[in-house]
Amino acid sequence: MYIIVLLFSVFLFFISCPFSSVKAQISGPCANCHTMHNSQDATFMATYGATGQSWKGTGPYPSLLKGDCLGCHGMGLPNKIVNLGGSEIPQVFHTDPTGDLAGGNFAYILGVKGSGASDSKGHNIVDIGNPDDILDGPPGGFLGFGHDGSNVNDSNLTCAGENGCHGIREVWSGNSNLNGSMNGAHHKNIGGRLDVADDVYNSYRFLYGVKGFENNGTYKWQNFDENNHNEYYGATSPPLYDSGNCEICHGPVSIQPPQNTMSGFCATCHGNFHTLSGGYYGDSAGIGDDTISPFQRHPTDIILPNTGEYSGYTFYNVEAPVARTTVPSSIDSVVTPGSDVVMCLSCHMAHASDYPDMLRWDYSQSIAGGGGTGGCFICHTTKNSQP
Q1: In Å, what is the CA distance from 319 to each residue of 162, 323, 346, 353?
Q2: CA 273 to CA 347: how far, in whole Å?
Q3: pLDDT tens per residue, range 267-280
Q4: What contacts 374, CB < 8 A, 6 or more positions away?
Q5: Which of 69, 77, 114, 285 could join 108 in a cystine, given CB atoms 3.0 to 4.6 angstroms apart?
Q6: Which sign does the torsion angle of CA 45, 50, 51, 52 carry?
Q7: Which residues lie across from 160 on neighbouring strands?
Q8: Is there a contact between 202 and 190 (Cβ–Cβ < 8 Å)?
Q9: Which of 57-61, 69-73, 283-287, 371-375 has the lowest average pLDDT?
Q10: DSSP 305
């Protein structure tokens, strides 16, 4: 009888928790995140964040929360993962000397960590209170129809919602405010293989419509090494924006990435950098007319060639991640030229890095024929030795 009960329990586990996706809902005491009235002992309950941070705030916040996005995920502490009442909270603003999470660290923009403050080191979200002195709209944005900064710009770019990256982003969806855009996502969140992406909770890192595989193991939220990293989803060709095909980004629920890829997601703001030339925006837009070199802008969502210098990149390097043409079900330490994909995150961090243009390395030190390693030479494996 006990054996039958045990086998039945195992059967239910496989039905409810397949290995392709892992339950990753937020756990711990409700009071870790929520407050009923934002009042206790005659003081505000918005207590997250290090002393002196402008986003610590006073509240009250929607959904009875104690803080906003950075209130939980940008505490400014010397830990990239903070344990709060038994819950682990990934940090996107911190001073941890051991490194950063996979998305990077907004602290580099303000110089709280790294080689010094610079607007070029990351996305200047308004939450950190440091408007960009150079850029207003997103670089590479298509001219006209709100794609060049009149919708999302330096004065309104934030973490989530209508003018952010995470959650529901469409202004006319009726769900455009920050907390509405993320409503319920933390409590329903699943991790591991995310191959549906038809809601916020089942999209890669709450990026609506993006597919991929989240590293939720020992080094969760991190690209740690060749055996411990996120797996990204990519396509074999960038999209072509043409008159009448606005629905490839403007879906029925929210702004969505063409082809469900990470590069397609970035293309919703930085269109010129992640599309084919021609179509409505003409030959001056995009990477070129096709996916064959030479290009006029560095390509994304194209196959890493299996010939010449590119054939040498076969061992996964977290300094230059690749994407896969099918949504991965596990972490792979092998790179396969001719099959795997070059994407935006092959070169850039999502939040911020310690290098200009949010790059993963110091571009000024990639010197052709200079014998250097890493950086551009991870893919361009022979150019470090060619004068």
Answers
A1: 31, 13, 8, 12
A2: 13
A3: 999 999 999 999 98
A4: 317, 319, 361
A5: 114
A6: negative
A7: 166
A8: yes
A9: 57-61
A10: P
Structure tokens, 139: 């670089």
CB 72 within 8 A of CB 61: no
What is residue 85's predicted lDDT score, i.e. its pLDDT? 78
Q: 310: which 2 tokens?
A: 């590119």
Q: In this predicted structure, what is the pLDDT of residue 3?
A: 42
The 10s digit of each residue's pLDDT in 27-46 is 888 888 888 998 888 888 77
Amino acid letter, residue 371: G
Residues composing the chain: 387
SS3 204: helix
**β-bridge mates for residue 255, sequence order:** 250
Look up tokens 């916040």; give the residue. Answer: 61
What's the predicted TM-score (pTM) here? 0.91
Instruction: Using DSSP, state whether 259 is helix, strand or coil.
Output: helix
Cα(248)–Cα(253) distance, rounded to whole angstroms? 12
C-alpha 33/C-alpha 25 separation (Å) is 13
Predicted confidence at residue 178, as pLDDT, reads 57
H/E stretch holding 160: none
> Which region holds residue 76: left if phi is over 0, alpha if psi is between -120 and 50, else beta?
left
